[in-house]
Amino acid sequence: METLLKIKNVGVDYDLDDDIIGAINNVSLDIHENEFVCILGPSGCGKSTLLKAIAGFLIPNEGEILMNGKKIEGPDQSRGVVFQETNLFPWFDVKKNVTMGPRLAHKSEEEINLICDKFLEQVELEEYKDSKVFELSGGQKQRVAIARTLANNPQVILMDEPFGALDSFTRKKMQTMIRTLWEKNNSTIFFVTHDIDEALLLGTKIYVMRRGEQSIVKDYDIDYTNRLLLNPKEHVVDEKIFIKLKEEILSLLEE
Ligand SMILES: Nc1ncnc2c1ncn2[C@@H]1O[C@H](COP(=O)(O)OP(=O)(O)OP(=O)(O)O)[C@@H](O)[C@H]1O
């Protein structure tokens, strides 16, 4: 697999008036095309900070992040971001929200319609095209936000606890949906979560993060993802490998 992102010895400090907070330390990892990378760790260990550095919202104090061999020096369209808060325009309809990027890129009306239909179909919201965003449920809004990001055709999708505010039933549905979208579009996804089950169900690669001199403490390659794709109802959570990994990660995080 081609290396898309190279994170080399990255450290980020926040400079407060009377203190300096070391948010992440010594992070080195490669993200390859078509990987579903989950960053898993407790609150405050620096997951969002790492995502913001990859997005280009902040520049690391130490080390560097390269995308396609080029240093990231600010945000750009090749990295799409989905947050827990959807940041949609509530008074605009779904279509207008989803097609904001293609419009700014001066695509033709025909292309815009094709993009809109394709991604609304993928997130199963075709019939809500003309609905105002404020009329939608939390899960539907998050699906609009995902369609909006996909519509910009990013090379990598950065997701920061995107399902954190959803009830467990909706969350399950969204997890199945994002796994299917990832496969269908050959996407590369960088997904931040503090939920072990979520990471173990979604990731093809999991990095475990903790506060300390070395932010990433362990990484795992996960090989049952393809089985899940074939049968989303399969009860991987009951399998020995799932339980073993979960116990191992829990004890790592409790150390
Ligand atoms: N803008 C900021 N200014 C100062 N300190 C910050 C800022 N953003 C984050 N921090 C601090 O950096 C550390 C890492 O925060 P970060 O939000 O990256 O962690 P996280 O693992 O994503 O947490 P959570 O899961 O709760 O979102 C924390 O101690 C946090 O208080």
From TrEMBL:
<dbReference type="InterPro" id="IPR027417">
    <property type="entry name" value="P-loop_NTPase"/>
</dbReference>
<dbReference type="Pfam" id="PF00005">
    <property type="entry name" value="ABC_tran"/>
</dbReference>
<keyword id="KW-1278">Translocase</keyword>
<keyword id="KW-0067">ATP-binding</keyword>
<dbReference type="InterPro" id="IPR050166">
    <property type="entry name" value="ABC_transporter_ATP-bind"/>
</dbReference>
<keyword id="KW-0813">Transport</keyword>
<dbReference type="InterPro" id="IPR003593">
    <property type="entry name" value="AAA+_ATPase"/>
</dbReference>
<protein>
    <submittedName>
        <fullName>Nitrate ABC transporter ATP-binding protein</fullName>
    </submittedName>
</protein>
<dbReference type="InterPro" id="IPR017871">
    <property type="entry name" value="ABC_transporter-like_CS"/>
</dbReference>
<dbReference type="GO" id="GO:0016887">
    <property type="term" value="F:ATP hydrolysis activity"/>
</dbReference>
<dbReference type="GO" id="GO:0005524">
    <property type="term" value="F:ATP binding"/>
</dbReference>
<keyword id="KW-0997">Cell inner membrane</keyword>
<keyword id="KW-0472">Membrane</keyword>
<keyword id="KW-1003">Cell membrane</keyword>
<dbReference type="InterPro" id="IPR003439">
    <property type="entry name" value="ABC_transporter-like_ATP-bd"/>
</dbReference>
<keyword id="KW-0547">Nucleotide-binding</keyword>
